[in-house]
Design a protein that fits this description.
By secondary structure, the protein is an alpha+beta fold. The chain has one domain: Hotdog Thioesterase (Thiol Ester Dehydrase, Chain A). A six-stranded antiparallel sheet has the order 1-2-4-5-6-3, covered by helices on one side.
Length: 145
């Protein structure tokens, strides 16, 4: 499965898709990027005087790249069809170190801790263009058919 096919399989609409590219992918890890555009829907309200990307959106970005995209790839290796799949986030534990402002590009790197019984758990980190650590933690999710 190609990076483009994985991104096309993601179950998010255009206003909630936080994956631009997948740069590296194998059975144990994934690396991808997203550019937070200045016109994202949440910036005018978070915060009014100094727009900053909400932590929940940073967590979502890490989940979309580091968990869901990797999960789609791992399921495809088992030749399972994702059309009837239900994808659910089951837990997160994220530490935040730096803000992400409008027009910043980030890179997410995720390493699989385990994938069994359709549950995936990953250690995930996000870095900015300067390679400074923005946030890191552990994210888990399940796929049900």
């Amino acid at each position: 499965m190609t990076s483009e096919q994985i991104i096309a399989q993601l179950p998010y609409g255009p206003d909630f898709l936080f994956v631009d590219s997948i740069e590296k992918l194998d059975e144990n890890s994934i690396t991808g990027t997203y550019h937070f555009k200045g016109n994202e829907y949440f910036y005018p309200s978070h915060f009014k005087s100094t727009p900053v990307t909400p932590g929940v959106i940073l967590t979502e970005t890490m989940a979309q790249i580091g968990l869901v995209s990797l999960g789609i790839y791992l399921i495809s290796l088992k030749q399972k069809n994702l059309e009837s799949a239900l994808i659910a986030l089951t837990s997160t534990a994220i530490d935040f170190y730096l803000p992400v402002f409008p027009n910043e590009k980030i890179r997410v790197h995720s390493v699989k801790e385990y994938f069994r019984f359709n549950k995936l758990k990953c250690a995930v980190e996000m870095r900015n263009e300067k390679e400074d650590l923005v946030c890191k933690g552990v994210i888990s999710g399940m796929i049900r058919f």
